[in-house]
Specification:
alpha/beta; Rossmann fold; 10 helices; 8 strands; 32% helix; globular
Length: 284
């Protein structure tokens, strides 16, 4: 469930240059530092490909374990990860969750398998993105990804059905992880921003929207130059940055809630815990 590997499409003649990773790498470095991540420890990558290896290697990680739903080496389903709790210090996913049937379940599973941190990068939900969809400058379903994979994969659960592009907010992540793991405190850092992380090939093949036509009119490389100039300007001011197309999220596990205890290998409400004396009207 990744877009890291791109297949050629017959008849496509657009040049395909390397994507500009500088904005993405800057965000990764910032939050790996904020969360005090030890890059000497292993990181599990869901839906991993060469693109993820390059990004994490550039970020200092030395032990990178990649997996994918159909991998012949380590086949892991993001919605039902076949690993014990706390298997890896860090779990990472880049452009994977919106390929899941239940993105919220995948986030919960990532947090279950991680002993310390979860990081993921997905589309951002904002009024600006909803406006772009209305103007047909973006599209709610990922048709191009399936077309680029010869119409047999690249969609929902890496299948042939184009997936809905699920977009996130920080508040939604907070509710999701609290519902999935109500036994402990969990810290969430949400970072929406603008990053037109595309190449010429991807632009001219987004024919479900007006993007391909604009790219052909302006020239794919010129269009990318304009997009990068726009993102640099928009990211300068937080209110504009918050409307961005990308959503990076860092999640860290913390201690158990004071009303939770471990009994016979299971979490439960601490016996004799008095919610009122602790300043709480009720335990939720």
């Amino acid at each position: 469930m990744t877009e890291a590997v791109q297949c050629s499409v017959k008849g496509n003649t657009a040049p395909s240059t390397a994507k500009d990773k500088s904005c993405l790498l800057g965000v990764l470095h910032r939050y790996f530092k904020t969360c005090k991540v030890d890059t000497n420890e292993p990181v599990l990558v869901l839906g991993g490909g060469q693109e993820d290896l390059d990004m994490l290697t550039a970020s200092g990680f030395k032990k990178i374990v990649t997996s994918n739903i159909g991998s012949s080496e380590l086949a892991l389903d993001a919605e039902n990860i076949a690993l014990p709790d706390n298997s890896y210090p860090v779990v990472f996913a880049h452009a994977v969750l919106h390929h899941c049937r239940s993105p919220h379940k995948a986030v919960g599973e990532m947090l279950r398998v991680a002993s310390q941190h979860v990081f993921f990068l997905e589309p951002n939900d904002s009024w600006a993105l909803r406006l772009l969809v209305r103007l047909n400058l973006s599209f709610p379903y990922e048709l191009a990804a399936v077309a680029a994979h010869d119409y047999v994969e690249g969609g929902m659960r890496n299948g042939s059905i184009p997936n809905y592009i699920y977009r996130w907010t920080g508040r939604e992540v907070e509710k999701c992880v609290a519902a999935y793991h109500p036994e402990r405190r969990i810290h969430v850092w949400a970072h929406p921003y603008w990053d037109f992380y595309v190449n010429e090939y991807e632009l001219v093949n987004r024919k479900e929207s007006h993007v391909a036509k604009l790219a052909e009119t302006l020239g794919p490389r010129n269009f990318i130059g304009l997009l990068h100039a726009a993102q640099a300007t928009l990211n300068l001011l937080p209110p504009f940055r918050a409307q961005g197309n990308k959503f990076f999220c860092a999640i860290s596990k913390a201690e158990l809630h004071p009303w939770i205890e471990m009994r016979e290998g299971q979490f439960g409400l601490r016996r004799g815990y008095n919610a009122r004396s602790s300043g709480m009207d009720e335990v939720r």
